[in-house]
């Protein structure tokens, strides 16, 4: 349920509503937009509440929210959420951003070559994982904290924000200390305790869609983060598991366009995991931007043939530079030019 307030409502009128909700064992969250202010009613609402709230002072209208996710819902929050990152990078403001870097941080040299390459090509955010969720326990699991330090160092030297995966509550302090954005991977999208604990850190969260997760489940996962008090969620479509085996996953372009409509949260696309094949990454990047993605996440490795994870879907820095040029032209031609890259610092 949402309570749409009169334009001239007073703080006392708002407080009266919040207090009434509290008495009823519910919670109200005020959401101020450009065109209106609403109070989202959270908890187990009952039909009679609508009549009661409608008669309270300062209230314009009370509406039911048809979907189970409330705070993530566009009906509750008409304006697009814009997630602000260090170095002035903004996600969701109509200018797509490009996140790029290796799947896993392997060595300082490997990370630096990838990081420098993506920075020179015009990426906005550096990715690289130190904790890898691998299907087999015998595969490379990531460098752990030493890897996080390398990522932070590369981000600092190049003057761009960083993102890395958080796999466990165990690693929250370390990941939060070294990275600007916390990534929740597809295998953990419905790890609700992890979502709540990660939310409390207060840093932006990049939330992947689950391997076989529906759009509603994905938005309800985002709801856990929003409900824990962290409004800075970036959704990432990374392909879903279907009957098709010719590609690693099926990148769901429907989901990008639909979630932009259902939710106010920024939605980016990950055509690397979405396809599993490096030569499909460019065309699916173009398609993602064309259907309204707020950004891309692309895996780049200086030597994909030798990568310890996801080499088959990783671009060389040279190929990545070509992708940025082509995507940039497309973005320009549809009136949504790519975001400006942070200013270079000496390095
Ligand atoms: C990744 O980004 O490297 C990754 C493991 O992604 P996903 O969680 O989408 O599989
Ligand atoms: Mn990967």
Q: Which properties best describe this structure?
A:
347 residues, alpha/beta, Alpha-Beta Plaits, TIM Barrel, eight-stranded parallel sheet, four-stranded antiparallel sheet, 11 helices, elongated, binds phosphoenolpyruvate, binds manganese (II) ion
Describe this structure as you would to a colleague.
The chain folds into 2 domains: about 1-65, Phospho-2-dehydro-3-deoxyheptonate aldolase, domain 1 (Alpha-Beta Plaits, 2-Layer Sandwich), CATH 3.30.70.1140; about 85-335, Alpha-Beta Barrel (TIM Barrel). Helix 10 (about 280-290) packs parallel to helix 11 (about 315-335). Strand 10, helix 6 (about 190-200) and strand 11 (about 205-210) form a beta-alpha-beta unit. The protein is an alpha/beta fold. The protein contains 11 helices and 14 strands. The chain has helices spanning about 10-25, 50-55, 110-120, 145-160, 170-180, 190-200, 215-225, 255-260, 270-275, 280-290, 315-335; strands at about 1-5, 25-30, 35-40, 60-65, 85, 90, 95-100, 125, 160-165, 180-185, 205-210, 235, 265-270, 295-300. An 8-stranded parallel sheet has the order 13-12-11-10-9-8-7-14. A 4-stranded antiparallel sheet has the order 2-3-1-4, covered by helices on one side. The relative contact order is 0.13. Phosphoenolpyruvate (PEP) binds near residues 187 and 238.
